[in-house]
Each structure stands twice: as structure tokens, then as C-alpha cells.
Specification:
With 432 residues, the chain is of the alpha+beta class. The chain has two domains: 294 residues, 3-Layer(aba) Sandwich (Aminopeptidase), CATH 3.40.630.10; 123 residues, Alpha-Beta Plaits (2-Layer Sandwich). 36% of the residues lie in helices and 23% in strands. The protein has twelve helices and 19 strands. The protein has a six-stranded mixed sheet. A four-stranded antiparallel sheet has the order 4-5-19-18, with no helix packed on it. A hairpin with a 7-residue loop joins strand 18 and strand 19. Helix 6 crosses helix 12. The radius of gyration is 25 Å and the shape is elongated. It starts with 6 loop residues before the first helix and ends in a 6-residue tail after the last helix.
Amino acid sequence: MKRLLTQASALIFIAIATATPLAAQSQDDYDRQIEQLMNHPAVRSALDHIVETDDQTMEDLMTLTQIPAPPFMEDERGAAFLQMMIDLGVDSSWTDEVGNVIGLRRGSGTGEVLAIAGHLDTVFPPETDVTIRISGDTLFAPGIADDTRGLATVLAVLRAMNESNIRTEADILFIGNVGEEGIGDLRGVKHLFRDGGPRIDHFISVDGTSANGITHMGLGSHRYRVTFKGPGGHSWGAFGLANPAHAMGRAIRYFQDGAGPYTANAPFRTSYNVGRIGGGTSVNSVPFESWMEIDMRSEGDETLDAVDAILQGAIQRALAEENALRTRGEPLTVDVDMIGDRPSGEVAIDHPFVEQTAAVTRALGLFPGFGRSSTDSNIPISLGIPAVTIGGGGQGFGAHSLDEWFRNEDGALGVQRVMLVVLAQVGLAQTS
């Protein structure tokens, strides 16, 4: 049964010694070491502090939610998040070249670094009303769960560690990153893990609200904006011109004809979707351009590349056929612009980082749920850096919709879980 850990409830565990970073071992060993970690006096204090300051966590959530953060326009929310971190206390803080907000909390000097991040951006355009509406125990606002809850959880973990004077062996980077959603294409995390970027040995993305999910597998995706272009003209007077809309329709048909049978029998689950189309000026005009946006996803890089190749072939076939049908005017051209490239990959379910995340989940009376998704963790996972995405607690629904909501049901439990996952990896520094 789920429960919030307080100092009294934590005492049911038998204290052994100060927790240390976990090595590969049996499930029982992981469970015992998490129990040991939870019985450390400073950790018990921090667990209690999370419960006692839950109102402050909710206040942070409400403040940040009502600061718009459309894709590529996260500066205002980032500045507020940075000031909150500074007020809580970090050893140094900065905003990097792409807008990621970073606070460093130094450890005892082992040189290892863990990063914990929530993403600053939402999917909503700047004109979206992000004012919170409260109905009973439920808060309605675009972006409140995805991922403002993650940001509030990151702050709550920092607050609890500082107030309980927890010292760690490894350094911790507390991050609000840009560009997780849509055409942001994970640009914030790609920048963090660029050549010459900051050292990060383990990565935790706090995204959404789940208190038991463990995303340790990345779902890869390719996204394109395809634009067919031509001279355009009057539908009667210029009849015979190559038509970009007709070419696009052919491309969609040929893509589906090829991708449908392939994905039905692909070795890894794979999907495709034409999500947006547009172009043209009027019903009685041959358009000068027509465009579409396509999303393809797969659990495997090779299958993703294969369905991508089907798309490219369909585009070129449609272009050639439409140009061959024209009786006048210049031929069509096509621009194929990649607007999203997320690699797939996975951290093995028996990797120590995944095992200890599962052990923390069990210790809180929850059943670990393992899964695959497209999150900020895709990037470190694809580079061979251990990473997981976990939720920040509470209940949420309607992500990416104007009716998105959050309810603070066992919200503190989710924060406790995130903090314990952090501490299980970074280790507690020995004190004299």
C-alpha cells in the first residue's frame, strides 16, 4: 500500500550503516541497501521535510506553471527557476548557451556527477492562457503536469537535501532544460551531452507525475517537414502546371503503401504518421507550395532508418510522376527538412541504476513499472550513459491539451522517491 514516509514510519527499517553507491548484486541486496539508506538520520530528516514542505512545492508548481514557456521561448520561466535554485542554495549556477538553467551542488570530491532535470518548455504557443483554474482538489492549466511538476520536484529535492544537511560523495547538477517538446527536438539535453559539455555520469529526467514508472528505454523518432514547390497559377488559366498538392497526395499514398506492410512485420515495433498538412492560397489556384509534417518512431534504429528510407523513396517517386504529367511550366522541386531526430536505445533492466530505482520504488510500497518512451533520457541512453525518466508524483491527465490537470494525490511520495533515487546513486559522504 502506498504511504508517505515520515520519520516514524522510516524507523520500521533496521539501520545498518551509511549508504554507499550500489554495485551489481541481487534484488534482495538492493532492497537492503535502500532500507539502510532510508534509515540514515539525515535522509530520514529529508524525507520528513518533503512532507512538511509540500505546500511550498505546490506553491512553486503554481508559480512556474503560470509563466509561459513555449518552444524556443523558455527564457522567462528559466530565469524564475534559476532564482528559485539560487534562493535554495547551490554552490554555483548559470544559464548555458541554449538556455538550460543549471545549479551545481558539490559532493565530497569523487569526481562523479549525476544530473537531475525537468524540462522548462511546454507544447503551447505564446498566446495560450496558462492561468490555473482550481476545482476542488484539482488544478487545471496547460503544462501543469508536463512538465512543470518535474521542475517543482527538482526544487523540492534540492530544498530537502539542503535543509537536512545531506552531503553526498558525487556532485549533483540540478537542471531546468529547454527543448524537450516537439520541434525542440531534445535540443537542451543534446547540448548538455555535446562534445566538450559538462561531465555527467548518470542522468535522471523528472517528467510527468508517475510515482512508480521507470522509463529506461528510449523510443527513437525521425520527423520531417516536406515541402513541394512549383510556379503556381490559376486553376483554369494555368491548368497543366505540375501541382504540389497532387504530388504531396501521391507521396502520402506511396509512403503508406510501403510503410504499412513493412511496419506490420518489422522486427521492432515501428509507427508512422502524417500529422500536419498545409499550403495553397485559394480553391481556384494551383498552389505554389504544399507541405506536410511526418513523424516516424521505432524501438530500433535500423527499423527507424528503414521506414525513413520508404518515406524518401515515396517522395521522390511522387515528385517524378507529377512532373511527368505536367504539360506546361517549370517542374516541381521538393525540400525535405529533418525537424526531429531522437535516437533509440536502452539501459538493461538489470543495470545497477535501473535496479536501484526499482528498489527505491518497492521500498515505498509501490510496484515498479518498466517502459519505453521518447524523453530527454533518449540522448544519454544512446551514448551509453545510464539514464532513467521517472515522474514527480501526484496525479495528472490531459498532457498537451488545454484541459491538462494535476491533483496532489500522494505528491510528496513522488518527491521522496526521486530524492532517494538520487541519493542511492551519488552516495552519502562520510562525516567525522
